[in-house]
Design a protein that fits this description.
- With about 260 residues, the chain is mainly alpha-helical.
- The protein has two domains: about 150 residues, Orthogonal Bundle (Ribonuclease iii, N-terminal Endonuclease Domain, Chain A), CATH 1.10.1520.10; about 70 residues, Double Stranded RNA Binding Domain (2-Layer Sandwich), CATH 3.30.160.20.
- The chain is about 55% helix and about 10% strand.
- It is built from ten helices and three strands.
- A three-stranded antiparallel beta sheet has the order 1-2-3.
- Helix 9 crosses helix 10.
């Protein structure tokens, strides 16, 4: 089946862009090494980093990365879904969807982009530069999606999957760092106990600049866990994470016959 290119290409297959300067080639090759992804066509990587504000001011530079962002969003959803199914083969559709949403949100994507110093390679217009566009989470997240699309066009699904595995596998080992424990607990208790958890403030202490909160989480009348933190919200999250761990542990013992 013929693949229709998203951007107009020249005879060599690359998007219609001016040749890369030697300095830009060196910059992109260094980024490729940081990403752990060698590009056969550096022009695709350059395109992924060309923000619309830059191409608007410099029409001769060729197209912006907007189409690659569009493709990258779809590639990201597919490759992350594949990674999650491999990592959690018994997970429900709902759990996989929640995990994927937690992984591919703009904040998380921006953090990954910062890890590889993607912002320093962005091509931006003067206005965006003045507004520190190289550090904007939304621009970094969009650029990361575009880079993933560039990898996909450069080497196919397998190349894009390798990138996603490298980016996201370390995050899967510490899920509570990026998942909302309160939401997970709410869904868990509603599904299994038909009850929502409740949070009760037991203690609030400390000076105004260093408050300390102690919260107890209950399911019905049963205390399940306590949490502490510098804010009530943080204490509730800690309590929810502990309660979820306790409930899942108890469920596991029941399914295992209580050790008998």
């Amino acid at each position: 089946m013929e693949v229709i290119p998203l951007v107009k290409a020249n005879d060599s297959g690359s998007p219609r862009q001016p040749p890369l300067t030697p300095d830009r080639q060196v910059e992109l090759q260094a980024l490729s090494r940081r990403l752990g992804c060698r590009f056969q066509d550096l022009g695709l990587l350059d395109l992924a980093l060309s923000h619309s504000s830059f191409t608007y001011e410099s029409p001769e530079a060729g197209p912006s990365n907007e189409q690659l962002e569009f493709l990258g969003d779809a590639v990201l959803a597919l490759t992350v879904s594949h990674l999650l199914m491999q990592t959690f083969p018994t997970a429900s559709e709902g759990e996989l969807s929640r995990r994927r949403a937690a992984l591919v949100n703009a904040r998380q994507l921006a953090e990954i982009a910062r890890r590889f110093d993607l912002g320093s390679c962005l091509l931006l217009g003067r206005g965006e530069k003045r507004q520190a566009g190289h550090e904007k989470p939304s621009l970094l997240a969009d650029a990361l999606e575009a880079v993933l699309a560039a990898a996909y066009l450069d080497g196919g699904f397998a190349k894009a999957q390798r990138l996603v595995n490298r980016w996201f596998t370390p995050l899967l080992a510490r899920p509570l760092a990026w998942q909302d424990a309160k939401t997970m607990l709410q869904e868990y208790t509603q599904a299994r106990h038909k009850l929502p958890p409740s949070y009760h403030l037991l203690d609030e202490s400390g000076p105004s600049h260093a408050r300390h909160f102690l919260v107890e989480l209950r399911l019905g009348d049963k205390p399940l866990a306590q949490g502490e933190g510098p804010s009530k919200k943080k204490a509730e999250q800690v309590a929810a994470a502990r309660a979820l761990k306790r409930l899942k542990g108890e469920e596991g013992k029941e399914e295992g016959g209580g050790g008998g």
